Amino acid sequence: MIDQREYKDEPEVVDTLSMFRSLLGVIESAWNSEARKPAVEALLRKVLERLSAETGLIYLLNDSGVMLERAHETGSYGNLDLFDHLENHALIERVMESGTSYVSNSFDREIRTPFGDESFTIRSLVCCPLRHKGEKLGALEVLNKKDGAFGDEDVRFLEMLAQPLALALETLRVFDQTERLTITDDLTRLYNYRYLQQYLAAEAKRCLRYKRTVSLLFIDVDGFKHINDNFGHLVGSKALAEIGQTLRGAVRETDVVGRYGGDEFVIVLPETSLGGALAIADRIRKTIEDHEFVAQGQRLHLTVSLGVANLPKHTVTAEGLIKKADAAMYRAKELSKNTIRVAV
Fold first, then answer.
1. Superfamily for 193-342?
2. Are 82 and 169 in contact (CB under 8 A)?
3. Which residues are catalytic?
4. The whole model's pTM is what?
């Protein structure tokens, strides 16, 4: 490893080595999902320091390659949603399509916060395309030179950085995709059985240690075999996928929704009492009952049976929580279906 102290009298060399280390840090962060975002944003801060600019942003195409998303940012504007407006998106898309950087030192756009009186002016900007092996990935945008104007040297620096940065970001994307495949169900895109077990075990330990609570819903689609037998497995698969997304949309972002197997789903509700879990379960039951599922031209109305269990009220283990909620769900199916039962 090169020792920067050897070049203490050569600030440009020290600056280049520091930038290189930050870039290397982005690549090394691929092995640790929690370190990826901080590593990219540390590099952005180095870029801002080098260019004496206020804000840096990285926009990337999503996995489908059709939607542009703001993936990383750092600088004086914090996390405010200021730049995702039509004009800026159009500019970024032009840069991506042309493969040519854009620079303006007379941009002069005032942006107001959606809810508040604050406003910010974008005076100048540089936007560079990010490409890997000829494929469009996104764009790097730097806003507001603090002193003076962005010059040719600033643009050359960003263009020089763009290629290794694109390679690093593509590496992170591949790692992200690989990790998602190991913890998600192919059909529903929800968490899979393996992840549910790991998450619930950790959550149970946390709750016991800090005297907190967690509830679990065990959900089974009523009469699902009838759908497969009468309409075919393709219709059944489409319906399961739609049920999964309906469940995901019916709960909080902090709740963990997974496919347990077949037509069974599990929802983990952290920091939720038994009463709160019952309210959520009833909302889910009604949502599914009222929803019209459309698959392969078939319009279906489905219902679900739910079992509810709570830790520490019914058990003190993750395995016990699943078993208790599963047993409650089977009682619901035996009694009347389209209903909810609580663990005993």
1. Reverse transcriptase/Diguanylate cyclase domain (3.30.70.270)
2. no
3. 263
4. 0.60
